[in-house]
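Standup notes, protein team

Yesterday: finished cleaning the Klenkia sesuvii set.
Today: Helix-turn-helix domain-containing protein structure.
Blockers: none.

Input for Helix-turn-helix domain-containing protein:
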Amino acid sequence: MSTEWAYAATPSDVGAFLRRARERQGLSQQELADDLGINRRYVYELEAGRPNIFADRLFQTFRHLGVRVRLEERDDGL
């Protein structure tokens, strides 16, 4: 299995990566939400890259400091 990765410049990039990882693992949004003990709507909002003040400021700080965020799906099953 090849390791999946992507650079993330926005919350939408993170959400898209999370959606692909969830789908590769054969999980529905509801199954992931149940596993995490959260609401399915929150999983949906994460995957949609819904704007929120924390994520917006976090990525603004990354850009300002010249930080590049790389997301990598672990292949060790953890």
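Follow-up from PR in the comments: The chain has a mean pLDDT of 92.
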